[in-house]
Queue: 3 jobs
Job 1
Amino acid sequence: MPTTPIFWKNKTVDIEYQWVNEERIDSPIIVFLHEGLGSISLWRDFPLNLCKELGVRGLVYSRPAYGWSTPRGVKEIWQNDFMHQQAMDVLPKVLEALQVKEPVWILGHSDGGSIALLAASHHPHLVNGIILMAPHIFVENLTISSIEVAKQQYLHGDLKGKLAKYHQDVDSAFWGWNDIWLNADFKHWNIVQEISSIQCPLLAIQGFEDPYGTMAQIDGIKEVVSQASLVKIPNCGHSPHREQPIIVQKAVKDFLQLHEALI
């Protein structure tokens, strides 16, 4: 995958990125923001399949510390505002580096969904609308319990081996995510009021069997962002695009057509 440099946290980091369906040069752009342990490759073929179905372009990138983007520094510890930094600093710099001049649609999964919410709140001029899958707007006990399980699977099970093929530095990706989510201070993280300023179209998708979050997450979004549309999927866990791709694809297509993003 190609990389593009951005200046972040007083240093230059390389960002792994990929354009999909890029021949549709006059179509809307969807930017895909991966989950807390994700990367370009962990999206698999979902961005390409979705963009071809919709007739749009897609931009997928691995955030710093993930995939083949620059790993975390040896002494770099993420703070409670790590998702704010991604939304308010990294995302705009990636768009600038790749010469994306028009507002984009953002599709974010899990942490990527939270980053999409923050981007729409703080940089409304960059965002046409947002599509969220299993986003977080506050910390639930269920989430913490599942992340603690993931830690044990990484230390004593096969999770590290499974993730290693998707990241050049798997410890950089895993511990950056796991350490901050299990930090006692992070239990107070909450962006509910912060996202109440969002004016753009919003679609939020959640599975009923998600071990990392309940319907309280997207119901909470609807309470403060009145134009939000919700899709609640039975027999679906934390990755709706992998577990129920047909439902997700239809929901996204209907949403974009409703807001005239698709001709």
Job 2
Amino acid sequence: MIFAAILAGGIGNRMGNVEKPKQYLLLGNKPIIVHTIEKFFINDKFEKIIVLCPKPWIKHTRDLVDKYVGETDRIAVIEGGSVRNETIMNAVKFIEENYEIDGESVIVTHDSVRPFLTHRIIEENIEFAGKYGACDTVVPATDTIVESADGELISSIPNRECMFQGQTPQSFKILKLKELYNSLTDEEKEVLTDAAKIFVIKGENVYLVEGEVNNIKITYPYDLKVANGMLKGE
């Protein structure tokens, strides 16, 4: 079985003084999150699409799904966690409570505010996660990456040819993800920035899916302006 988890748990502080989390702001004539849900909904490989959002926004999100996508049983809206990986594990818990999954079952996790992902990226995430157990969508770094341990002085300048910028989706075999997450110490959980790092910390391979520069994350007001420009150009 294959599942999608659309991560909409954030409140978007970096978007500035807005009245709602950034995933609910309009992109064109629809909320950002709706564009993202639609990209997954048209792929019939997904048994269930799970949208995880802040508890106060569950009803609003469900109403958006009903309005723009339709009253469909393929989409569930549930509460996210306080941090990213807790949100993903909420999705895993929901899947285990409602489905009989096995070691080949896959979860494709994606940021709700990356509405421009393509069918190819989704398909390759499904393929690579099923084949290898874990994959991450990335694009090659175009700028030189500078590392600073103290934020004041350069510690090192890694070889740019080995550097990639992470995007999403990130996709995993569900039971392996749960096993590795539950084996983490509290200290290891504190340094996690995404789910792929769970596999890296535990010495597991994470394979690369080629992303696209258009697969942007809408984080700041400028990003939303760019995204609206991209939408008009489609």
Job 3
Amino acid sequence: MSWLNVKHATYLDPWIRVPLMWPEPGLEDVEAAQSPQAWARIFAEAWWEDFATEKPRPGEVELLTDILVMHANRAPAICPGFDVFLHLPHPRDIPITVFVDLLEIEEEDCDTALRELTHADADYAIEPPIVEKFDSPHLGTGLRVLRYFQDEDSNEVHAGLRYAWRYESGSEAADVLILLSHPEPGRIIRAFPDIDEFARTIRISPDEEADTWKSA
């Protein structure tokens, strides 16, 4: 059996992995893994130190801490079971929440499945989605789909981005999905290089590597 390996994405800047439970299993002695508040405070301070050329104004570390706590509490419930990452290139930016998971195959035809997973033919999009093949060194060729849609609550135009692949190895088969959306379309467009790099780090690893955090 194999597992979805997102470990390498944790080494990329400017990405933050959001733990799915507290304290995080196996990290009971790590302060940042004990609670959303501890995790958020540590990362808020680190992000201002690492990604800002200026010092934070009064209250800005606390503001980012509150934003991260909100994401830690809410994001895992949006797509239960998905791994969750935040794209945050500057501590004053609004994070992009990215979800990643390995899915049981529901549609046998690969092309049809990838189009369904990426919403390549979404009838709710305000213009035809931009559908492109996307190559991964670990997952092969999949699809990347960018679409624009109107939010039902605010009527604002949002951007959504999805990546999908069919993974097959011997008797094992599954679909891999990455999804995200944002109320500021330009924010996703500017983040494209980082998101593409992130997507190309995702891989499927054999069970024997499950306990090796830095396995290739």
